[in-house]
Amino acid sequence: MASVTSLSDSVQQHLASALTATLPESAGADPLLRRSDRADYQANGILALAKKAKANPRELATQVVSQVVTGDVIKDIEVSGPGFLNITITDRAIVENLAARYTDVTGRLGVPFAAHPGTTVIDYAQPNVAKEMHVGHLRSAVIGDALVQLLEFAGETVVRRHHIGDWGTQFGMLIQFLDEHPHELDHKAGEVSGEEAMSNLDRLYKAARRLFDSDEEFKTRARRRVVDLQAGEPHTLATWQKFVDESKIYFFSVFEKLDMEVRDPDIVGESGYNDMLAETCRLLEESGVAVRSEGALCVFFDDIKGPDGNRVPLIVQKSDGGYGYAATDLSAIRDRVFNLKANNLLYVVDARQALHFRMVFETARRAGWLNDDVTAFQLAFGTVLGKDGKPFKTREGETVKLEDLLDEAVDRATAVVREKAEKVGLSEQEIVENGRWVGIGAVKYADLSTSAVRDYKFDLDQMVSLNGDTSVYLQYAYARIQSILRKAGEARPAAHPELELAPAERALGLHLDQFAETVLEVAAGYEPHKLAAYLYQLASLLTTFYDQCPVLKAETAEQVENRLFLVDLTARTLHRGMALLGIRTPERL
Helix or strand or coil: residue 341? Predict the structure, then answer.
């Protein structure tokens, strides 16, 4: 089973036939359905059609209603206001549609693949070699990973790229210092933990920086090393590789804590495009896209000017012959378009780099590397703030280390899990494991439930709360359903379309049916916060359902089976939806 036609699509088809019978020239125009407080759906497009046909909207709506066939999908349809159509779905249609999703053997819950999937390169989680990851790296990693899951689920071919900072002048300083003080890093890569590896690198970096700033002769030697590195001198490259390998050990340990898969082949840093830089500059200069200005190779834009009114250029190559970030980013575009054959380039990067990427993308368009068939988009994200609404810092005013933040989240969550552990009968191993999934899930959900472009406050007390819009609330909803299913005894979930549904059952069922269109909309628009909102509303409807509709103590055996079916499908939807956000759902909490 590849997909299930949603109830909204079925209603659209019925309305299209009625519209065509009423207004043949409308060719079944989309009536624009939305959820309504007064009915299951409301059609708003009649007003626009009436204006186009120079007809009275309410009269046209009444004619359309007379042509609608009711009984199988549509239970009732009535004209509302100036020409809206309020539509009520039959109980049978709700249950039958959900049954089709429930029995989907692919595990996709009837979610279709995108109509025209392509190849997307997602650039996300971009740490720097020899530097600790901090809270500023969190959003790129979490948002990027969720988009990988969503796009792959929608059928897109996704190429992951982690554009790490592994090139530049600082490496001359580090390499020269290590050459002169080999005992500072005297173990082989892989012999220490990720935390120890970064601690060693951090200590070495600080020592090298102190010497660089105080010793002019060392500074001169370090700068010569940069030239050796760029020229590919074997010993210098081997030492540089040691720094990269040590850093990767640390990166992998942090990503493992985040419960994210990061594969070594996906890590292609700035150095990966080094051999392309000269050719990129040549192509831009020969095509006239870039010009020489005061010795530097620049691209100018009429609409980008500085405070003095002069145009601000994108500098591709410096006047001393060195290459900047622009040359690397433009070379990466060439590689992704012509070698990886990507249709879409997605960059999950801090909003503060918006101007840089705007200039880079426009330059690539002028060069013909981007066009109507190959697009680039920066998913710019906001800043992580502290409870005080200011950039998140430690009490000492330093940037918060990502590992410390994750460890604290897990500790807080484990305490929350432990409070309920005895009642549920969790073992110590389950408490520890669930504490990890709840803690990491809390951090991810707080990020993903906020629109990427907005800043958000990092408040662990709120994140691990059992109440409100948190991942813990959703995880407990899932675990509660699993508990009910375990207690069901011989009763099994089974759909009963012949039953009349209570209002809370209908509301839950209609929302479950919207999962497919929500997932595809979220994937197409790069908007994981909309999936988080859908899942929170699903858990809220489930709570109302619990309060109003006994499951195991329902009046008849058929009702018990039907309600078990509804909660089981809800659990599967929560599990799938949370997985698409990169969050686990423990079976017992």
Answer: coil
Cα–Cα distance for residue pair 581/33, rounded to 1 Å:
27
- Given a cut of 80, whether residue 382 has pLDDT beyond it is yes
7-89: CATH class = alpha beta
Q: Give the tens place of pLDDT for each residue, 304-334.
A: 998 998 999 999 999 988 888 999 999 999 9
Q: 434 phi and psi, to 5 degrees?
A: -65, -35
Distant-in-sequence, close-in-space partners of 231: CB < 8 Å, separation ≥ 6: none
* Residue 442 and residue 583 in contact, taking contact as beta carbons nearer than 8 Å: no
Q: Where are the domains of the chain?
A: 7-89, 120-163+269-284+322-382, 170-263
Whether the model pTM is above 0.90: yes
pLDDT of residue 37: 74
DSSP 8-state symbol, 501: P
β-strands 119-123, 157-161: how paired? parallel
Query: What CATH number should be reported for the domain whose range is 120-163+269-284+322-382?
Result: 3.40.50
Q: What is the dihedral of CA 287, 290, 295, 300, to 10 degrees?
A: 150
Please check whether residue 260 is in contact with residue 162, taking contact to mean a CB–CB distance below 8 angstroms: no
Asked if residues 311 and 304 have their Cβ atoms less than 8 Å apart, the reply is yes
**Structural contact between residues 379 and 143, judged by C-beta atoms closer than 8 angstroms:** yes
- Report the distance separating Cα 329 and Cα 317, nearest Å: 12
